[in-house]
Design goal:
6-stranded antiparallel beta sheet
């Protein structure tokens, strides 16, 4: 006797994209909450990394961010950014959508970011480079990023150094649970 269709789980490719995206986002948020880092304030183990990134890359700002359901929380930062901003205004919200390092040499020339309040207004950010950070279970929960008020490029060596620093930040993210 055939199994009733209502009891057979559809193959992931048969699910509507919006349903798959919602399920993925739920798992990502569970991972974030399992990290026990959201809204926990300053911690030297993270601050040490952002200070190093800001000095090493000679940027105005360095951030370790966590992307919650509706906002970006800055777990650690050097520079002039509010600790919590709407998720839809966060550059790092784009970063967590891919495994790759996101580098935007000039935010004014990128249609995704050129109208951002942080680009057209204080602190007038022009350069962004961010690496997604995995949390418990392997989901992207945030990023380590560097930002500057002048357009710039990163060479291959600098990209590797940024990735290495992000690996250290990821270890700290996962050591907190």
């Amino acid at each position: 006797m055939p199994t009733p269709l209502s009891l057979v789980a559809p193959a992931p490719s048969d699910l509507p994209a919006s349903l798959t995206a919602r399920a993925t986002e739920r798992e990502r948020l569970r991972s974030l909450h399992r990290s026990n880092l959201l809204d926990t304030g300053d911690e030297e183990r993270f601050d040490r990394l952002t200070r190093y990134a800001q000095i090493h890359f000679a940027t105005a700002t360095a951030i370790i961010s966590l992307i919650a359901e509706d906002r970006q929380y800055l777990k650690s930062f050097v520079g002039s950014f509010p600790r919590s901003i709407p998720r839809n205004a966060a550059f790092c919200n784009v970063t967590i959508r891919s495994e790759d390092t996101l580098v935007v040499p000039d935010l004014l020339e990128d249609e995704r970011f050129r109208d951002s309040p942080f680009v057209v207004g204080p602190p007038f950010i022009r350069f962004y480079a961010g690496v997604p950070l995995r949390g418990p279970g392997g989901w992207f929960v945030g990023s380590l990023c560097i930002l500057d008020t002048e357009p710039r490029q990163l060479d291959q060596r600098a990209l590797l150094q940024l990735r290495s620093l992000a690996d250290r930040a990821e270890l700290e993210v996962n050591g907190a649970n």
